[in-house]
Amino acid sequence: MPRGHGRTPGWSWSTRPAGPIHPRLLDRARRILGGLRARGARPGDAVLLCGLPLDDLFPSFWACALGGLRPAMIADHVEEGSPTAERFSHTWSAVQEPVVLAGPSTARSLAGFAQDVRALTADECTRHEPARAHEGERQDDIVLSSGSTGAPKAIPLTERALVLFAAS
User: In the chain, what is the straight-line distance between the N-terminal and C-terminal CA atoms, in Å?
Assistant: First the structure.
C-alpha cells in the first residue's frame, strides 16, 4: 500500500520491514521460507505455526511475512488427547489443512496421531537454500478466535482492515 494512502498520512504497510532486520534472523527466516516452499507453500497459503520455541517462532513468522504466507499460531505443544490437540484439529481444518511448522516435540507428537498433517520443524527447513522474499501484495493474516463455542475459528484479517482500524 502506498505511503499516505487514504486517511492515514504517513502510514505504510508492506512485506518489507520498517527498519533493518538482524542479519542472522533474516538469513534463518529466508532458509525457513526455502523449506516451506520446498514443501509446496505458495504466496497466499496458510501456515500453522504450532508449539514453536521462541528462537524458532520469530524467524518462522518472518519467513511467512517474507514469503507472502498467512501465519496462524497455536502457542502450546500438542499432545494426543489434550485440549490443545482438539484446538489443533479444529484449527487445522478451519485453515484448510495447511503446512504445519512445529517445534520438534510437537512434530513428533503429531506424527504419532495425526498422520494427514504435513508437519516439519524450523531446523528441517533451514537445510534448504535461502528463498527470496515475495514481491507481491501483502497477504491476509489469520486470527484464531474461539468465541463462545470454544472451537477455534480462522478469521482472515486483511491489510485494508488493519489500516482502517489504525486510522480510526
Answer: 17
pLDDT one-digit tens code per residue, 71-122: 888 888 898 988 888 888 888 888 888 999 999 999 999 988 887 887 999 9
pLDDT tens digits for range 143-157: 666 666 766 666 666
In sign, the C-alpha dihedral spanning 29, 35, 36, 37 is positive
What global pTM score does this model have? 0.72
Sketch the domain layout of the chain as residue ranges: 23-167
| Exposure class string for 55-67: b at 16+ Cβ within 10 A, else e | ebbebbbbbbbbb
Residues ≥6 apart with Cβ < 8 Å to 3: 10, 11, 12
Look up cell 504466507; give the residue: 69
Q: Transcribe 11-73 into DSSP letters.
A: ----SS-SSPPPHHHHHHHHHHHHHHHHTT--TT-EEEEES--HHHHHHHHHHHHHHT-EEEE
Q: What's at 9, amino acid-wise?
A: P
Fold category of 23-167 in CATH: Rossmann fold (3.40.50)
